[in-house]
TrEMBL record:
Pfam families: Piwi. It comes from the Eukaryota. The lineage of its organism: Eukaryota, Fungi, Dikarya, Ascomycota, Pezizomycotina. It comes from Arthrobotrys oligospora (strain ATCC 24927 / CBS 115.81 / DSM 1491) (Nematode-trapping fungus). InterPro entries: Piwi, RNaseH-like_sf, RNaseH_sf. Residues 642-955 form the Piwi domain. This is Piwi domain-containing protein. Residues 1-90 are annotated as: Disordered. GO terms for molecular function: nucleic acid binding.
């Protein structure tokens, strides 16, 4: 025995010594035990090594250097362990540091410096505290290796790239981009292409350029009268260190890595290098802006071609029953921004589409007509009625208007409000002193929107479909258009002196990068059956299978809403087509295992409305209070009925009124169906697919579970005891109303059972900001409910935060994650160590959807060629140091798929990159309302849906305020001061939340609970300028100076 121990010690020393020379071979792994279940055999090695696994059902561990399965390749067996690599020695800052080459990585051909640089960071991490969890591997091995084309070009810098930054201050009534360009053209005509403003307070120039003077003022009568310009605070930007930061070489670790206490502008890149990135963004966009005067330059590096506008179809956004959408046009453009990449600087290029106001006179674009019927209303012969006034105000309030005066000059005003007034009102005074009244000028000819303003009205369903149709394109079409547009703007620009003067050049080809396609997860249906997932589109058809946990159908009521009656009335019974649809739906539910589907409806009603233009809210609320509530019964514990509602169309007012009446007033469950969709001939002939989607909602609302990923082996390996309720998923999102004096809506959702397909919501109204104020209270409420249900706290909590940008990552970490910690600590202390032996571990990921990254399959030639679900990209274009990745979890039904971007800001479990990617992808199949994977994590998806539901409760109040009504008078002095506007905003918040924001008591265990928080907002002062039309009947427009 002693001899054997001495031999082991001697061998151990020998192996440790050989590790620094040639790398030891991995040890043979132990054989896994055989499970009692016949279908789960684990005979592979638990730990990978020289022999790898054989027939294993779980991935073996990683072998030693030079060890592993077949040499340095993947280990044997099903997902066997990965082999090791030969060591590589690299010199870094004069110190000999052993670095292991961890992966053979290809970016646009060949490059493995990325993994070497990563190894240096891992070694340096031992003595460094980071803001966010750092990346520890690029050698993730899950899934099938593949290559994709990313919409990134390489931006080449050189030793000649020398940039200086000036603080550029401008005072005066005009601060437009056009004025900045005119100033540079006037004062520095010989170096116009070398001076690059970012239109946000900085001016970038070559290092050898120094202005002759720094302060510029102008006398009366000059074109710049009243304006002052100042150039100061000259700063040389270190581009060389920025390149070293990307490569992690030739620069001290202490200078390139941000400390945990450092404040950075975008929280990912250190301040000094973020300034270089901003400078490069301003430089690359300078030449296209100068050469293409027709471009609309948005904030940042997004440009739209004003010559390529497309008008929306008829009635694209119905506001109070009025078609105001002809004020908008779809404009296609190009986005190009500089992004840091691993080992190189990149330019992210993508197509963009947005809605802009048309620059025609208002008489040509505002059609005051009911839906698609009739002709435009002649405003010269009558006043606006209340509905028309409200609709026009919602569309045009806050828009910059160009006013063409009778003397031939133009002025710019911000439209505040349209309302009726006096014909003798003086609208303006000409330079000659002539007073112009309403009678002397017509509203139909003087007013038009200034160019380059985004359309701010929410589109109806028809407008959204039209927008998607014009903006989406197949990957091969997208790629061809992108290459052509980018080349025209950057590569083919004649004499691009800007880039050459700064020593810059943009590559001619898009990057081809390495990616992986993850394996489909295991989705369980009823009776232990497994869903057959189609890996090409991430969906499955549960034919012959039941729901995972089918529920019993609740007592239900049929409600049909129709328009066109002479008077509002309620008739018994519903139409035959609606009843046939419900019969088909109940048959589908019965096939999925639900019980009680043979029971007839408890009641049937048809609500007749006089016109689609009328507000249906009052009539629908009266019906629910007078008829629907009578079916609930007064006994305690009585079942909440389910209302099937057939709406006359896709107008959101009907949906909002139904949800508010059911959720807030009566406490009943509702499922709405669009009459336009159900009357479609294809659905009428074969309603199977439509009823299949509805059946998913019915089972969830009745308390069932449609499918589950809790038996997936990947998830069970990451979270031991997953089926014993050890994991809670959380999701959070914030929805804004578009104005700072209106409240934002925050939602926090959580799961209490292992399938994670049923999520419960906590909704709150708060001041207009992105950070969630009630994060601690919301998380604490979910933990309390979890504890009440399972008598213990979860071992692991995974939070998905949606809707924040890179510049807000640090705020989320410092404010919201701290609040989550406080809630977890408090719940843990109250739970006691006997029931909860250890504090729950927390993992927080930020989900990003509004980015410009796209991936394309190489060699795509038609619409069928798309990237597959499960595509993961975690190198080349991702963060240099932190844990992040792009994941396309879904298959695009239309157009080019957009991957979701995940960034890890907290990781108590110390998960590997592979584990994080796999668990996110597998959970993408747990969304209960679909038999397919969704585009991003279901908790974040459901938080967004919860915000939308809460918005439906208050939308009629928001529309009234947008339309100019003062619903909640504040105790203000009337001076339009900041304090007055703050008081108005606070009154709006408390008034809206108090009137219509609380969920009914009977539904608190099925949906979400709303709370009200305080609000403080600041709004700019507004001066009133009244303008109207002639003939004694006028519409006054209140404006303030632009």
């Amino acid at each position: 025995m002693e001899r054997r121990k001495r031999r082991r010690r001697r061998g151990g020393r020998k192996r440790r010594k050989r590790r620094t020379v040639e790398g030891r071979k991995g040890r043979k792994g132990r054989k896994g035990r055989r499970s009692r279940r016949k279908w789960w055999v684990i005979e592979g090695r638990k730990r990978g090594g020289e022999a790898g696994g054989s027939g294993g059902s779980w991935r073996g561990g990683r072998g030693g250097w030079g060890g592993g399965g077949e040499g340095s390749s993947r280990g044997g067996g099903h997902r066997g362990g990965r082999g090791g690599f030969s060591p590589t020695t690299t010199q870094f800052q004069g110190d000999a540091i052993l670095v292991t080459e961890m992966d053979k990585m290809t970016i646009s051909g060949d490059n493995d410096n990325e993994t070497i640089a990563l190894s240096k960071r891992v070694l340096a991490f031992r003595d460094k505290q980071w803001v966010f969890p750092i990346r520890k591997e690029y050698n993730t091995t899950s899934g099938r290796p593949t290559y994709v084309i990313a919409n990134y070009y390489e931006l080449m810098t050189s030793t000649q790239t020398k940039i200086v930054r000036y603080v550029f201050e401008m005072t005066g009534p005009n601060r437009s981009k056009e004025l900045v360009d005119s100033f540079i053209q006037k004062e520095f005509p010989t170096v116009v292409e070398y001076l690059c403003p970012d239109y946000g307070g900085y001016l970038y120039a070559p290092e050898d350029w120094i202005p002759g003077k720094q302060h510029f003022t102008y006398p009366a009568g000059h074109e710049f009268e009243g304006q002052t310009f100042t150039l100061k605070s000259r700063l040389v930007l270190n581009v060389d260190e920025y390149r070293d930061y990307l490569a992690a070489s030739d620069v001290p670790i202490s200078s390139i890595l941000p400390l945990a206490h450092e404040e950075t502008e975008n929280c990912v890149i250190p301040v000094a290098f973020y300034a270089v990135s901003m400078a490069l963004n301003a430089i690359i966009i300078r030449n296209p802006r100068l050469k293409n005067t027709h471009l609309i330059h948005e904030k940042g590096n997004t440009m739209y071609d004003s010559r390529k506008g497309k008008v929306l179809s008829q009635d694209p956004c119905s506001i109070s029953g009025l078609d105001t959408g002809h004020s908008a046009q779809i404009i296609v453009g190009l986005h190009a921004s500089v992004r840091p990449g691993s080992q190189r600087c990149l330019v992210n290029a993508s197509k963009v589409t947005n809605l802009y106001y048309r620059t025609l006179p208002m008489e040509d674009i505002v059609n005051l007509r009911e839906g698609t019927h009739g002709q435009g209303v002649n405003l010269e012969n009558r006043l606006l009625d209340k509905t028309e006034e409200k609709g026009v105000n919602q569309c045009w309030t806050g828009v910059l208007i160009r006013v063409d005066l009778p003397d031939g000059t133009s002025q710019y005003r911000v439209l505040k409000r349209v309302h009726n007034g006096n014909a003798q009102q003086v609208i303006w005074e000409t330079r000659e002193g002539v007073q112009v009244t309403v009678e002397m000028y017509s509203i139909r000819k003087w007013c038009r929107a200034a160019e380059g303003q985004k359309f701010k009205v929410r589109l109806a369903a028809s407008g959204s479909r039209d927008m998607i149709y014009h903006s989406s394109s197949a990957p091969f079409e997208y790629l061809a258009t992108l290459k052509d547009e980018f080349s025209n703007m950057f590569h083919r620009a004649q004499d691009n002196l800007t880039l050459s003067r700064f020593g810059l050049d943009i590559g001619k080809e898009l990057l081809k990068i390495q990616a992986r396609t993850l394996a489909m997860p295991r989705v369980m249906m009823g009776r232990n059956s497994t869903a057959d997932i189609d890996s090409d589109n991430g969906s499955w058809r549960p034919r012959g299978k039941s729901f995972h946990s089918p529920a019993a159908l609740l007592p239900y009521i049929l409600l049909e809403i129709r328009t066109g009656a002479r008077a509002v009335r309620v008739d018994p019974g519903v139409g035959k087509s609606f009843k046939d649809l419900i019969i088909a739906l109940l048959g589908k539910c019965r096939g999925y295992g639900m019980t009680g589907t043979e029971v007839a409806a408890s009641g049937e009603f048809t609500l007749w409305l006089t016109s689609s233009r009328d507000d249906p809210r009052v009539d629908i609320e009266n019906l629910f209070k007078g008829r629907i509530e009578g079916f609930k019964g007064g006994a305690a514990g009585a079942q909440v009925p389910l209302i099937f509602c057939l709406l006359p169309g896709s107008d959101s007012r009907y949906y909002n009124a139904i949800k508010r009446a059911g959720d807030v007033l009566s406490g009943v469950l509702t499922i709405c169906m669009d009459g336009n969709k159900t009357s479609n001939q294809k659905i009428a002939r074969d309603p199977g697919s439509y009823c299949e989607t509805l059946a998913l909602k019915v089972n969830l609302k009745c308390g069932g579970i449609n499918h589950s990923t809790q038996s997936d082996l990947v998830l069970q390996h990451i979270f031991p005891g997953l089926e014993s309720n050890t994991v809670m998923l959380l999701g959070a999102d914030v929805s804004h109303s578009g104005r700072r004096d209106l409240p934002s809506i925050s939602a926090i959702v959580g799961s209490y059972e292992p399938s994670h397909s049923r999520l419960y919501s906590e909704v709150a109204y708060q001041k207009n900001q992105e950070m969630i104020e009630n994060m601690a209270e919301g998380v604490r409420s979910h933990l309390d409910r979890f504890h009440d249900k399972h008598k213990t706290l979860p071992r692991f909590i995974v939070m998905f935060r949606d809707g924040v940008s890179e510049s807000q990552y640090r705020q989320v970490l410092d404010r919201e994650v701290v609040a989550i910690d406080a809630a977890v600590d408090r719940a843990f202390l109250q739970s006691g160590t006997q029931r909860t032996p250890e504090r729950p571990k927390l993992v927080v990921l930020v989900v990003g959807k509004r980015h410009h990254t796209r991936f394309f399959p190489p060699g795509a030639t038609d619409k069928r060629h798309k990237t597959l679900p499960g595509l993961v990209v975690d190198r080349a274009i991702t963060a240099i140091y932190e844990k992040d990745f792009f994941l396309q979890a879904h298959a695009a039904i239309q157009g080019t798929p957009r991957p979701a971007h995940y960034f890890v800001i907290r990781d108590d479990m110390d998960l590997s990159d592979t584990q994080i990617q796999e668990l996110v992808f597998n959970w993408s199949f747990s969304f209960g309302r679909s038999f397919r994977s969704v585009s991003y994590a279901p908790p974040a998806y459901c938080a967004d849906l919860a915000c939308g539901r809460a918005r439906a409760w208050i939308q009629h109040k928001v529309d009234d305020i947008r339309g100019g009504e003062n619903l909640y008078p504040a105790s203000a002095s009337g001076s339009n001061s900041s304090s007055d506007i703050t008081a108005v905003a606070q009154a709006n918040l408390h008034g809206i939340a108090g009137d219509c924001g609380r969920l009914h008591e009977d539904l608190k265990e099925t949906m979400c609970e709303a709370e009200c928080n305080k609000i403080v907002c600041v709004e700019q002062n507004m001066d009133k300028v009244n303008i109207g039309n002639k003939r004694g009947l006028i519409n006054i427009i209140e404006m303030h100076d632009a």
